[in-house]
Structures are given as structure tokens and as C-alpha cells.
Please model this.
Amino acid sequence: MKIGIIGSGNMGGSLGKLWAKAGHQVIFSHSRDLQKLKHLATTAGTNARAGSPGEAIAQSDAVLLALNPAVIEEVLGTTALDQESQLAGKVVISCMSDLKPDFTGQTIGIATDLKISIAETVQQMAPAAHVFEAFNLTFAEIAASESRQFGLDKPSIFYCGDHPGSRATVETLIEDCGYQPIDAGGLIVSRSLETLASVWVQFAIASQKFGSSGSRVVIV
Ligand SMILES: NC(=O)c1ccc[n+]([C@@H]2O[C@H](COP(=O)([O-])OP(=O)(O)OC[C@H]3O[C@@H](n4cnc5c(N)ncnc54)[C@H](OP(=O)(O)O)[C@@H]3O)[C@@H](O)[C@H]2O)c1
Model:
């Protein structure tokens, strides 16, 4: 499969490398430093290359959005109005959660005025895309590890979306990264998954398993 990565930082870089290793053709995009993107593509191997977000969208069957949510509109909207149509019929996976910079909470959820999730916002911006939420309840450190195997168990990835015909594709992309996919329902569930990401990070901080070397956190 051809996969476009929009946002090639901790999450996009790690998942893109795993997909390239699994045999997918990957385009890394959306960095302020093109050399960084090229270096990432080189380390990911011959199945990967660097490109612009426009190329990553136009030349892919599936797209991962691993951005700061504040710039979604800039990337999907005003910079290239035809990108919405380029996304038509394609699987678009959002792993985004709008956590505050100090991880003390998030800027969406029950306590705010916003009614919809980031993934639903993406679906509104690209109505013909097959938008899913996935990978937001893992850590980039786990995706970047040599293996996602915890003894006999694999970490679970909850995913949700409204397009039945694309669920198998999303499950394959999750499995190709070494995780176990769990269908959590329609895209409306992304409101809960994105909120849960805040709890997830708080749990990791409270249990001192966040950022300490050798420690890993897993839901199985
Ligand atoms: N980190 C995790 O463990 C984790 C886990 C699950 C979900 N998520 C979610 O995944 C999303 C991405 O997180 P991340 O940790 O991968 O972030 P990150 O490492 O900061 O990556 C953000 C990407 O956006 C690019 N970018 C381009 N223009 C930018 C700008 N003006 N300002 C900031 N970044 C810009 C960055 O490129 P350059 O820096 O090269 O310019 C980078 O490729 C977030 O919504 C987060 O909630 C993260």
C-alpha cells in the first residue's frame, strides 16, 4: 500500500518506519526541515522517501495525520483546496489528541465548549475521506521500540471510524506495526478515545512510566 505521513515527528516517523519495514511505500512529509525528512526517509529504507504534504496525499492510498492539531486546517485546508478531493475514498488515520503542552489535560472534551473531536473535525474538512482514529493510545517510544511484543501479548490499539469497507485496511495497518487492533465503533467514539489519551498520559506520569528509560506502558 502507498502511505502518506503528514507530520513526521515522534509518531509519524516511528509508524512510517514500521510500515516501510512491512513493505509499504511511505512518503514522509510536513517538517520545517527538509533535510530532517530526507534523513528520516533514508533511515526508513528503500520503501520510503520525503515529499510535500500535497504529494503525500495525492500519491497515497492511506494517510496518517500525526500533526499538532492546531495546524490541521493550514495543512488540509487553505494551503491546497484540492487536497480535500484528493482524500476522497482514501483511508485517513488520525492519531491526534489535543493535549496541553504540560500534559495536565486537554483542550477538548466534556469540560470545553467544543462538541466534536479532532478526528471528526478532519472528517468534516474532508467529507469523502474514510477517516479513522487510531494509535492515539500508545506512545511513540513504544512505536519506536525494536518490538511491540510484551511477552506473549501485543499492545492493543483501539480504532474507530464510520466506513465499514475500510475497517480491514485499518486493521492491517495496525497489525503491520505489531499491535492488536480493537474495533471501538463509529467515529463519534473518537471523542472518548481522544479524552482517554489525557488519562493515559496522566497514568503514565503518575506511575512514573513516562519518559524513563526501559519502562513501557501497555493496555492488553
Ligand atoms: N508522542 C506520542 O507518544 C504520541 C502518542 C499518540 C498520539 N500522539 C499525537 O500525535 C500527534 C503528533 O505528536 P508527535 O509527538 O509525533 O509530535 P512531534 O514529534 O512534535 O511531530 C509533529 C510534526 O509536525 C511537524 N511540524 C511542521 N510544522 C510544524 C509547526 N509549525 N509546529 C510544530 N510542528 C510542525 C514537525 O516537524 P519538524 O519538527 O521537523 O519541523 C513534526 O514532523 C499529536 O497530536 C499527539 O497528540 C503522540
In short: The CA atoms of residues 105 and 111 lie 10 Å apart.
